[in-house]
């Protein structure tokens, strides 16, 4: 939001529509007064034009708040949504051309709604999914309501995809991304559960095998090149955790021989790895 737009929205907030106190304008009167003021603004310049535009904003604040109210309770503070709606109203007033002969609300309502949706898309995601997922997610909500009435049950992803004419995989991605907007805290716990049952306490720790992944990848072709008995000895010692005595019993040699064999095998692997 630019400084000029913030200033205009702030000036508009406390203003009153130009009508007698205690006598709210009817819908028809408000539309007529809006059209009159916009025509005067169009014919004016400078401070006079800004004054007429401010009066239009004050006159139509209720419309902006009605649009904003539909987006309350969706994870963003209502005050922020109201402010963005006012910015959309300011943009609508400045961008509307009365010469086109279109009713102002037909232009203003989509403008305000679009401003709010862009704000949700750009600032509302705690974990931001791809743009395609963000855009289709709001459409899915409307589609589900419509299909539920038609089918008498919750629609399947494939049915939603056909209704919206999008790929089923995109619908599934959007449905699984629901928690990206307001993800649950890892420290949250239910009132009836013990504190130690918080999600963070159920997460796994670091896998120690991650630290050896690079070494395993480098050693794999070298292991495959070893004679079968040598490879078996290495597997039993370092992958199965067998003792030298257990290895000796399995391959038919003494514990002392296993020790010497391990020393020789490891030496050859180091040399091959260095080479």
UniProtKB/TrEMBL annotation:
**Upper taxonomic classification of the species?**
Bacteria, Bacillati, Actinomycetota, Actinomycetes, Propionibacteriales
Q: Which residues form the RNA polymerase sigma-70 region domain?
A: 59-125, 138-191, 222-271
Kindly give the InterPro entries that the UniProt entry links to this protein: RNA_pol_sigma-70_dom (IPR014284), RNA_pol_sigma70 (IPR000943), RNA_pol_sigma70_r2 (IPR007627), RNA_pol_sigma70_r3 (IPR007624), RNA_pol_sigma70_r4 (IPR007630), RNA_pol_sigma_r2 (IPR013325), RNA_pol_sigma_r3/r4-like (IPR013324), WH-like_DNA-bd_sf (IPR036388)
Which domain of life does the protein's organism represent?
A: Bacteria
Look up keyword Metal-binding and say if it applies. no
- What's the protein name? SigB/SigF/SigG family RNA polymerase sigma factor
Region Disordered: start-end pairs: 1-34
* Keywords, ordered alphabetically: DNA-binding, Sigma factor, Transcription, Transcription regulation
Q: Which first-to-last residue range defines the signal peptide?
A: none
Transcription regulation as a keyword of this entry, yes or no, is yes
């Amino acid at each position: 939001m630019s400084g000029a737009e913030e200033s205009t929205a702030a000036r508009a907030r406390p203003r009153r529509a130009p009508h007698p106190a205690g006598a709210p304008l009817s819908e028809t009167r408000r539309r007529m007064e809006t059209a009159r003021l916009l025509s005067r603004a169009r014919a004016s310049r400078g401070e006079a034009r800004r004054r007429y535009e401010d009066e239009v904003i004050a006159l139509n604040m209720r419309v902006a708040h009605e649009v904003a109210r539909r987006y309350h309770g969706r994870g963003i503070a209502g005050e922020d949504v109201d402010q963005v709606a006012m910015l959309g109203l300011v943009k609508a007033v400045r961008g509307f051309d009365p010469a086109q002969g279109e009713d102002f609300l037909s232009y203003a309502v989509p403008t305000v709604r679009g401003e709010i949706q862009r704000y949700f898309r750009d600032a509302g995601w705690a974990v931001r999914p791809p743009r395609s997922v963000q855009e289709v997610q709001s459409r899915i909500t409307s589609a589900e309501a419509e299909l539920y009435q038609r089918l008498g049950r919750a629609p399947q992803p494939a049915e939603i995809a056909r209704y919206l004419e999008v790929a089923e995989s995109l619908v599934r991605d959007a449905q699984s991304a629901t928690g990206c907007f307001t993800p649950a805290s890892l420290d949250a716990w239910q009132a009836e559960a013990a504190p130690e049952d918080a999600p963070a306490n159920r997460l796994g720790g670091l896998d120690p095998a991650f630290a050896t992944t690079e070494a395993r990848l480098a050693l794999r072709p070298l292991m495959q090149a070893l004679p079968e008995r040598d490879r078996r000895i290495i597997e039993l010692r370092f992958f199965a955790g067998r003792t030298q005595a257990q290895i000796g019993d399995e391959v038919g040699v003494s514990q002392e021989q296993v020790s010497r064999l391990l020393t020789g095998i490891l030496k050859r692997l180091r040399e091959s790895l260095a080479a």
